[in-house]
């Protein structure tokens, strides 16, 4: 399968932009994400799939997590997007620079993943077809995010960004794939509405790369581009290991997916990264055996954070 997987880690020590996890310091934040990248890389390795981590600071990665820096292929790329200081999902906004980089590559097909993910099965046939035919894929999470936002607010946000009617389809930030020309077109679409997205932030229902990414995908579809739904094809699923506002199926229904996004399980993924290289199916078995531990690990991290603050006063 002629596909290259990428993740990215933009680092700035004045912006501790972790979400869905507690960290006690900037280096602690970097260690968590690097351990997640290592677990993801090893889970892809189990199926013979290559992974590269794009970053602005390989030296910080080497200092925070030497094992990950040694094992995970790193590539330094420029990040130029203007991001408002202190905003939630600060580093995620730089995904626009990643789109631009992927659009410049001489490659058959590439896929961009969040780091808090695992490959738990081999890729489905539908993904192989998309790779062979160079069909772009995105992950439609509209049904998952609408219950957690005021009624109609997400559709309204997209229409405010686009300044025209929109179907209101919301794209998950954890997965995008396609040939480089798709990412080049996506970059152009993002750049055409990014300033408008930033202007609307004070009243926005959601912030981060998902709003401007969803709006940009809307533009491409409006112009006639066909983009397959990676969720419907069994390529990716987002599993919240906690109570959710949307009706989430039981975990067993997620176990046939190729990629599993685990937003609240960064500490579990860190533990999996300490198990060494993974065999096919092992990532799922390890996660299944550890998933119940997340609440204890999160509470422990909060206690450490409080103690660290107390010690620094």
Write up what this structure looks like.
This protein is α/β, with parallel strands linked by helices. The protein has one domain (4-312): Spore Coat Polysaccharide Biosynthesis Protein SpsA, Chain A (Alpha-Beta Complex), CATH 3.90.550.10. It is 43% helix and 13% strand. It has helices at 26-45, 58-64, 66-71, 95-103, 125-133, 142-145, 153-162, 180-199, 209-222, 266-273, 282-290, 294-312; strands at residues 4-9, 51-55, 74-76, 110-113, 117-119, 137-140, 171-178, 228-229, 236-238, 259-261. The strands form 2 sheets. Strands 3-2-1-4-7-6-8 form a 7-stranded mixed sheet, sandwiched between helices. Strands 5-10-9 form a 3-stranded mixed sheet. Strand 1 (4-9), helix 1 (26-45) and strand 2 (51-55) form a beta-alpha-beta unit. It is globular. The mean pLDDT is 92.
Task: Identify the notable features of this structure and list them briefly.
Spore Coat Polysaccharide Biosynthesis Protein SpsA, Chain A, 12 helices, seven-stranded mixed beta sheet, three-stranded mixed beta sheet, alpha/beta, 313 residues, single chain
Mean pLDDT: 92
Kindly state the number of beta strands: 10
Q: Helical proportion?
A: 40-55%
Q: What is the CATH architecture assignment?
A: Alpha-Beta Complex
């Amino acid at each position: 399968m002629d596909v290259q997987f990428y993740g990215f880690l933009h680092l700035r020590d004045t912006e501790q932009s972790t979400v869905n996890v507690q960290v006690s310091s900037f280096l602690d934040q970097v260690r968590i994400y690097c351990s997640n990248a290592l677990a993801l890389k090893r889970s892809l390795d189990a199926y013979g799939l290559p992974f590269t981590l794009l970053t602005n600071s390989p030296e910080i990665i080497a200092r925070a997590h030497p094992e990950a820096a040694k094992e995970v292929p790193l590539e330094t790329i420029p990040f130029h997007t203007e991001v408002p200081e202190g905003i939630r999902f600060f580093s995620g906004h730089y995904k626009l620079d990643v789109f631009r980089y992927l659009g410049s590559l001489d490659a058959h097909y590439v896929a961009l993943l969040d780091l808090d993910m695992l490959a738990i099965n081999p890729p489905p046939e539908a993904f192989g077809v998309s790779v062979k035919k160079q069909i772009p894929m995105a992950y439609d999470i509209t049904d998952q995010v609408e219950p957690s936002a005021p009624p109609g607010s997400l559709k309204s946000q997209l229409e405010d960004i686009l300044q025209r009617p929109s179907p209101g389809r919301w794209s998950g930030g954890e997965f995008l794939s396609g040939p480089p020309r798709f990412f080049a077109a996506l970059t152009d679409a993002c750049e055409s509405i990014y300033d408008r997205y930033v202007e609307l932030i004070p009243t926005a229902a959601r912030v981060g790369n998902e709003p401007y990414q969803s709006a940009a995908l809307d533009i491409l579809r409006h112009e006639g581009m066909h983009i397959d739904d990676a969720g419907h094809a069994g390529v990716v699923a987002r599993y919240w290991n906690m109570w959710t506002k949307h009706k989430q199926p039981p975990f067993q229904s997620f176990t046939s997916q190729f990629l599993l996004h685990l937003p609240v399980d960064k500490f579990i993924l860190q533990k999996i990264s300490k198990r060494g290289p993974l065999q096919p199916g092992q990532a799922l078995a390890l996660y299944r055996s550890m998933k119940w531990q997340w609440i204890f690990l999160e509470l422990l991290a909060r206690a450490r954070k409080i103690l660290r603050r107390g010690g620094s006063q």
